Amino acid sequence: MIDIRNKRLDDKEFFQEREEVLQTWPTGKEVDLEEAFKYHESIPEGKVFSKKLAKAKAEGRTLIQPRAGVALIEDHIELLQFLEKEGEADLLPSTIDSYTRQNRYKEAEVGIEESLKTNKSMLNGFPAVNHGVFNCRRVTESVGVPIQVRHGTPDARLLTEITYAGGFTSYEGGGISYNLPYCKNVPLETTIRDWQYVDRLTGLYEENGISINREPYGPLTGTLVPPFVSHAVAIIEALLAAEQGVKDITVGYGQCGNLVQDVAALRTLEELTNEYLRKAGHDEVNVTTVLHQWMGGFPADEPKAFAVISWGSAIAALSGATKVIVKTPQEAIGVPTKESNAEGLRCTKQIISMLADQVLVSAELEQEAEIIRKETRCVLDKCYELGEGDIAMGCIRGVEAGVIDIPFAPCRYNAGKMLPARDNNGAVRVFAIGNVPFTQDLIDFHRSKMEERAKAEKRQASFQMVIDDVYAISKGRLVGRPR
Known about the structure:
alpha/beta; four-stranded parallel sheet; 17 helices; 50% helix
């Protein structure tokens, strides 16, 4: 077992490791750190992710960003330019392919070759490592807005090196959020250590005057994740990143569907992240927020899918999220066309514009916010206790103990004892507490919410509710009511 602590990596150790990382694929030789710093200095301010986020936050605006990525350079550039122009995207992604996410660069190379032969993308994303630094710069230079790397990689060290040198100014992921929801057999201490490398590299850029935004992956498994679970993971990853010198962090949340709960979740996420960063002595970190539109099953009917997109857009606007990750009306059928992707963006922008001057305030909203604060602090404070003051070790022990328990996660190290279900109003509650360290008043609160729904539906509170809720949206409802 690797001895993991939340402390800044030793420079000598980091640079020795870095030599090994850059040798894992030939394009690693293209990375020259000093030259990369100089290159970033030439990037216009309007194309720097952190600066655009800070401006939007100061102005109270919500920015829109799609997911997108294909195998070949020219096709990827064409796609991003289309989404910038026709989709009116404020921010752009390069979504990385599945082979690269698993460090299977040889298979990614085959995918590129097959894409060239067939004249269509045979990969489900952009293989940045194979394309290398200078081809990445062709991508980042081809558009007028900032671009983020979005992926799902447990060991993202080489991908980070190449894309940072390639001019990307934002990077998604973390050692928890890109392990438990994605991996089956990778120990958490391994991914936390690999992501300390990512964050230390980010910190080095920061120390040389180059701001690169970091974004923990908020939705986790994407289905019925209670706010306190994703909050706890996002805050821990923010703490781990800040310790390595990261100064600009966007914490995220996946839409659950209940208006009051979702708005309360987004607002408390920023508040609690700042609270725990300050407690740890990281007052200088800039914190922004991102809402991920509905991450569960989508209706196959496109007009109905637009309704789901619109609801997520309304949540983003009313919560004051700094940005929103946008879905497409073809979500149910797989990889969308660029036209469909642009339609989802324009739909989102219209809703956000219409709600720009509206503020949601209510006693119910504040009550929900206070519940989320209490739940999140229960988990985080217990992790600090288990780690004897060290949040990295506390997180590892917290996952082992089921204190952090992500619903439906494939990872064998995840306890899987806590189960969520919706209450009678559609808010996500906890059906089975497992080992989550709630106070008795919180346990009673969740039980009462489950009993209230069971009574309304004239059935026993059972696991069937969980199953019904997972499939509800694709069937046109939020709460999985019995027929």
